């Protein structure tokens, strides 16, 4: 890759500044500086880069498409909610040099990162940060500075002893392998070594049988244990000699515990492991609210990035609010507000690129609010679903949802793979479409947009006029064309559970505000669960959440609501729960509900745990042992060291809601030891989510967030496990982790 390349950094059509971009010698850091002032503006790590897009694949670069050809343009996309970096190179060759170089640097990084790769990167990164005079060596003063940077408050005599032991050349400095020795001594895991020696007869290695004993007794691996032990030795033992003898060294044991197989998250549940042949209403479905917004609800920016980010996180239900634009071109934005606008065609194009890039291409749903004039354009899209009896004049598209005559009105995710369902208002019922055109006026969704309801009433009135104007007839035709695209997700108003049982169909869906849903949960919890066993329900945030804040999705999941729409752009506990639930099952965005929530005659009520069929409550015991290389709090003072504590939070039915925390460890974010045991009783474990939170204790103000990890109880692996922490944005922060011991008893 070229270094010190002059490129244009673009923020808008009118903001294009020339900057020098350079890859540092460590091949891990890129900085850029102003051409005019020579001042370094910013730097970022290769580990922060998620992907690189070529050409005009951002709104900013699309706005300058006439001025700069796509061969010179590319976009650097970062993990989390950090904004993209749009660049224009001086030539197509320079652009390719950067694009291919960046891809090669980020390609080897798989998730979770291997322990060896993380350690190598971590050592190199810290060495270069602490080597103040850049001479490739570190004296003791620089080592002391390094310890502060690494969140370690170590006794000076102990630090000097480690330094001298590593200084094999007795030069008074550490370089190369000497620093690696110092780092290994610094990161010695006494708690892991003690566990290793407990099962090792000679204290130096685990034989195959000793490893099998550990896996069975502590990790509760009871199937194919010998084969698993052999796999772990082959995969994680660094010594070729030890591998040949089928033994595991202490280093190999630590690498196993830090690997996906040693994670608290069951690795088998990362893949698609649930039955995908149940009706759609039997699944929780990852869903977003006003997906196009990446900021607040009133003046925020609308962007296709909102769709890309949501889809990459496994979201399967997106929201598209379409309004009239210039020349009848539909625009997407939050109506009656000051949010920016994006063309509907750009949204559709984005869906085409990203809708099915998740590991399991489960069906997606688009919830659309429509204005009037642009409906014909919207209905022309080849991405839309088409009813079974209508001959599609545009040819067969890969995303259309065709229904065979006599097909079920409750299709399954398996049947709908690679399909997009349109959720919206419809003239008549699905059965009417199968039999022929219907003449029923469209129902009105119980949504928070009053303008939509008024528009639908106006349309219904137009349809009832036999001698209307040509314009009225055109609008009637357009509404019918769009209606024909709505198949399995027809919006209907909610008028009570009894009314729904009598008059609604499985192919229909109602939308409820969070406040209305809470009232139904409180007053008719069991009826709500039964309703969601046969029909879809969507929950959306209160209109008062103009800051794009979120409500807790857990209380909605407790009654089986499938489409619980959240503002994906806002980090916090609510999105942690969403990510935690949907990080399983291949991240496909569908999670099968427990059996007692799929029965239309169920007696389950979340306010009464005893109504759950099955065994009694279980006890979850968590021994929080230690933490490793915890990050510093953002914007903390130089030299500040965190005082970490761990809080374990349980989210589930009201009887299971709980939290407990450890004491805080003063001035040690590098290798804190708690050795505290927390215990919880779960009455409905099938609905429970466990959130591990690390905070920096502050006695005078609110604790600062350090990291978290959330997962469903069903995905927990018992035994000695590592928890690899995530940032507030939900991105990995290697090598930060917790080491815990998990026990589950009835």
TrEMBL record:
<dbReference type="InterPro" id="IPR018247">
    <property type="entry name" value="EF_Hand_1_Ca_BS"/>
</dbReference>
<feature type="domain" description="PH">
    <location>
        <begin position="1"/>
        <end position="107"/>
    </location>
</feature>
<dbReference type="Pfam" id="PF13202">
    <property type="entry name" value="EF-hand_5"/>
</dbReference>
<dbReference type="GO" id="GO:0005783">
    <property type="term" value="C:endoplasmic reticulum"/>
</dbReference>
<dbReference type="GO" id="GO:0005634">
    <property type="term" value="C:nucleus"/>
</dbReference>
<dbReference type="GO" id="GO:0035556">
    <property type="term" value="P:intracellular signal transduction"/>
</dbReference>
<dbReference type="InterPro" id="IPR011993">
    <property type="entry name" value="PH-like_dom_sf"/>
</dbReference>
<dbReference type="GO" id="GO:0004435">
    <property type="term" value="F:phosphatidylinositol-4,5-bisphosphate phospholipase C activity"/>
</dbReference>
<dbReference type="InterPro" id="IPR001192">
    <property type="entry name" value="PI-PLC_fam"/>
</dbReference>
<dbReference type="InterPro" id="IPR000909">
    <property type="entry name" value="PLipase_C_PInositol-sp_X_dom"/>
</dbReference>
<keyword id="KW-0106">Calcium</keyword>
<dbReference type="GO" id="GO:0016042">
    <property type="term" value="P:lipid catabolic process"/>
</dbReference>
<dbReference type="InterPro" id="IPR011992">
    <property type="entry name" value="EF-hand-dom_pair"/>
</dbReference>
<dbReference type="GO" id="GO:0005886">
    <property type="term" value="C:plasma membrane"/>
</dbReference>
<feature type="domain" description="EF-hand">
    <location>
        <begin position="154"/>
        <end position="189"/>
    </location>
</feature>
<keyword id="KW-0443">Lipid metabolism</keyword>
<keyword id="KW-0479">Metal-binding</keyword>
<dbReference type="InterPro" id="IPR015359">
    <property type="entry name" value="PLC_EF-hand-like"/>
</dbReference>
<feature type="compositionally biased region" description="Acidic residues">
    <location>
        <begin position="433"/>
        <end position="454"/>
    </location>
</feature>
<keyword id="KW-0539">Nucleus</keyword>
<dbReference type="InterPro" id="IPR035892">
    <property type="entry name" value="C2_domain_sf"/>
</dbReference>
<dbReference type="InterPro" id="IPR002048">
    <property type="entry name" value="EF_hand_dom"/>
</dbReference>
<protein>
    <recommendedName>
        <fullName>Phosphoinositide phospholipase C</fullName>
        <ecNumber>3.1.4.11</ecNumber>
    </recommendedName>
</protein>
<dbReference type="InterPro" id="IPR017946">
    <property type="entry name" value="PLC-like_Pdiesterase_TIM-brl"/>
</dbReference>
<keyword id="KW-0378">Hydrolase</keyword>
<dbReference type="Pfam" id="PF00169">
    <property type="entry name" value="PH"/>
</dbReference>
<feature type="region of interest" description="Disordered">
    <location>
        <begin position="431"/>
        <end position="468"/>
    </location>
</feature>
<feature type="domain" description="PI-PLC Y-box">
    <location>
        <begin position="482"/>
        <end position="598"/>
    </location>
</feature>
<dbReference type="Pfam" id="PF00168">
    <property type="entry name" value="C2"/>
</dbReference>
<dbReference type="Pfam" id="PF00388">
    <property type="entry name" value="PI-PLC-X"/>
</dbReference>
<dbReference type="Pfam" id="PF09279">
    <property type="entry name" value="EF-hand_like"/>
</dbReference>
<dbReference type="Pfam" id="PF00387">
    <property type="entry name" value="PI-PLC-Y"/>
</dbReference>
<keyword id="KW-0807">Transducer</keyword>
<dbReference type="InterPro" id="IPR000008">
    <property type="entry name" value="C2_dom"/>
</dbReference>
<dbReference type="InterPro" id="IPR001711">
    <property type="entry name" value="PLipase_C_Pinositol-sp_Y"/>
</dbReference>
<keyword id="KW-0442">Lipid degradation</keyword>
<feature type="domain" description="EF-hand">
    <location>
        <begin position="118"/>
        <end position="153"/>
    </location>
</feature>
<keyword id="KW-0472">Membrane</keyword>
<dbReference type="InterPro" id="IPR001849">
    <property type="entry name" value="PH_domain"/>
</dbReference>
<keyword id="KW-0677">Repeat</keyword>
<dbReference type="GO" id="GO:0005509">
    <property type="term" value="F:calcium ion binding"/>
</dbReference>
<feature type="domain" description="C2">
    <location>
        <begin position="598"/>
        <end position="727"/>
    </location>
</feature>
């Amino acid at each position: 890759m070229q270094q010190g390349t002059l490129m244009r950094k673009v923020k808008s059509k009118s903001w294009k500044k020339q900057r020098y971009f350079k890859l540092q010698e460590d091949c891990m850091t890129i900085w850029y500086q102003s051409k005019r002032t020579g001042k370094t503006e910013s730097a970022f790590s290769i580990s922060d880069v998620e992907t690189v897009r070529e050409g005009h694949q951002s709104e900013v670069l699309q706005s300058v498409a006439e001025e700069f050809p796509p061969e010179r343009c590319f976009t650097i996309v970062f993990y989390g909610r950090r904004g993209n970096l749009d660049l224009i190179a001086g030539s197509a060759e320079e652009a390719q040099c950067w694009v291919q170089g960046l891809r090669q640097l980020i390609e080897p990084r798989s998730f979770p990162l291997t322990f060896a790769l993380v350690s190598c990167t971590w050592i190199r990164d810290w060495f270069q940060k602490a080597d103040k005079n850049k001479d490739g060596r570190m004296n003791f003063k620089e080592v002391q500075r390094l310890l502060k940077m690494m969140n370690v408050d170590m006794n000076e005599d102990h630090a000097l002893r480690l330094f001298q032991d590593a200084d094999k050349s007795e030069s008074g400095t550490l370089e190369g392998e000497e620093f690696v020795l110092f780092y290994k001594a610094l990161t010695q895991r006494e708690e892991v070594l003690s566990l290793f020696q407990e099962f090792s007869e000679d204290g130096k290695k685990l034989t195959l049988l000793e490893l099998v004993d550990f896996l069975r007794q502590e990790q509760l691996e009871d199937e194919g244990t010998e084969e698993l032990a052999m796999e772990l030795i082959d995969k994680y033992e660094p010594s070729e000699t030890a591998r040949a003898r089928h033994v595991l060294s202490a280093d190999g044991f630590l690498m196993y515990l830090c690997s996906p197989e040693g994670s608290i998250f069951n690795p088998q549940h990362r893949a698609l492991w649930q039955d995908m042949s149940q009706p759609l209403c039997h699944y929780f479905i990852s869903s977003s609210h006003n997906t196009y917004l990446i900021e607040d609800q009133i003046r925020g920016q609308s962007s296709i990035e909102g769709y890309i980010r949501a889809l990459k996180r496994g979201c399967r239900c997106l929201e598209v609010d379409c309004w009239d634009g210039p020349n009848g071109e539909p625009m997407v934005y939050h109506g009656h507000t000051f949010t920016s606008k994006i063309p509907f065609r750009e949204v559709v194009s984005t869906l085409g690129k990203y809708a099915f890039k998740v590991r399991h291409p489960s069906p997606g749903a688009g919830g659309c609010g429509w204005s009037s004039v642009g409906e014909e354009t919207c209905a022309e899209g080849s991405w839309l679903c088409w009813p079974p009896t209508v001959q599609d004049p545009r040819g067969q598209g890969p995303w259309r949802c065709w229904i065979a005559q006599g097909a079920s009105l409750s299709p399954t995710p398996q049947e709908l793979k690679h399909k997009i369902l349109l959720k919206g208002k419809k003239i008549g019922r699905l059965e009417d479409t199968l039999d022929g055109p219907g003449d029923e006026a469209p129902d009105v969704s119980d949504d928070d947009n009053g303008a939509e309801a008024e528009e639908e009433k106006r349309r219904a009135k137009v349809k009832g006029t036999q001698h209307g104007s040509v314009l009225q007839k055109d609008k009637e035709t357009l509404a019918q064309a769009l209606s024909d695209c709505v198949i399995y997700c027809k919006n209907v108003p909610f008028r009570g559970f009894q009314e729904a049982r009598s008059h609604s169909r499985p192919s229909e869906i109602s939308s409820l505000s969070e406040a209305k849903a809470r009232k139904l949960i409180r007053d008719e919890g069991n009826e709500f669960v039964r309703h969601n066993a046969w029909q879809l329900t969507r929950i959306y945030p209160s209109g008062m959440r103009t800051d794009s804040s979120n409500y807790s999705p857990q209380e909605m999941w407790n009654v089986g609501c499938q489409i619980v729409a959240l503002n994906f752009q806002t980090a916090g506990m609510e999105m942690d729960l969403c990510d935690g639930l949907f990080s399983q099952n291949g991240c496909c965005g569908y999670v099968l509900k427990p059996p007692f929530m799929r029965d239309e005659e169920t007696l389950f009520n979340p306010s009464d745990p005893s109504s759950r069929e099955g065994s009694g409550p279980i006890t979850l015991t968590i021994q929080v042992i230690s933490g490793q290389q915890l990050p510093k709090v953002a914007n903390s003072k130089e030299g500040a060291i965190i005082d970490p504590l761990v809080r374990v939070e349980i989210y589930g039915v009201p009887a299971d809601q709980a939290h407990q925390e450890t004491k805080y460890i003063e001035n040690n974010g590098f290798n804190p030891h708690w050795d505290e045991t927390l215990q919880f009783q779960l009455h409905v474990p099938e609905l429970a989510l466990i959130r591990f939170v690390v905070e920096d204790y502050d006695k005078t103000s609110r604790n600062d967030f350090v990291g978290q990890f959330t997962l469903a109880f069903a995905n927990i692996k018992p035994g000695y496990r590592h928890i690899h922490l995530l940032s507030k944005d939900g991105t990995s922060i290697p090598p930060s982790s917790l080491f815990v011991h998990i026990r589950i008893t009835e």
